[in-house]
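Final report, closing paragraph on structural work. Over the funding period we assembled a curated collection of sequence-structure pairs, and we close with a single example.
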Amino acid sequence: LRRYNLITIKTKEEIEYMKKAGDIVYKTHMYLKDFIKPGITTKELNDLADDFIINKCKSYPSFKGLYGFPGTICISVNEEVVHGIPSARKLKEGDLVKLDIGASYKGYHGDSAYTYPVGKITEEEEMLLRETKKALFKGIEQVKPGNRIGDISNAIEEHAKKYNLGVVEELCGHGVGTKVHEDPNVLNYGNKNEGPILKEGMVIAIEPMLNLGTKKIYMLDDDWTIITADRKKSAHFEHTVAVTKDGYEILTGDWR
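Its predicted structure, as stored:
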């Protein structure tokens, strides 16, 4: 494992471990999505994820106890942007629910988030989901050796601007490896040709968080849940991506 500027370059073997971790995260998403219906509680979804990752996949949930987080996965509903704590809250028709899932394999992590509609949602909300997901892939398309982190950030911001979506600035993507959060930070706004240069073997999580209204956010009294300042709905999509010799590889399954 070579280091420069605190950014770790992974070996092929390490990236294989991260692919295994990423596959567990992907499978957990695929498993949980069938349970996302009106009436289920976020705690029930959390417990299904816990059982699946630990007992079915013989893995460990990366977020369980991370920095003291009181759940196994982050479940954020509607105006909650990220870091929602699983609870007795029941999902209802028209909700947007974000599942942010991490899992580890041989000490290496995978991290991916997806926003799911609960039943029927509005056209505006469909646009929010569609274009936030597209913004993620616009960012991913910038991943190749020689490009810079700012190229990813700029691609996400430019796409969001086309649809007047609020780009959350205080939260960002990050490096991934033996820790869930490593250098570098991957902002969802910024300028091309700025930031660290991408090199083969870097692994990063890219995760646009876009809002239907203001970009402004604040934290609830639980010291975890982040919500939009105007209480309008937010979407979050994330993949863990490795920089390859000539481009990128998505390590957390391709639900494009």
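DSSP finds four helices and 17 strands in the chain. The radius of gyration is 17 Å. We thank the funder for supporting this effort.
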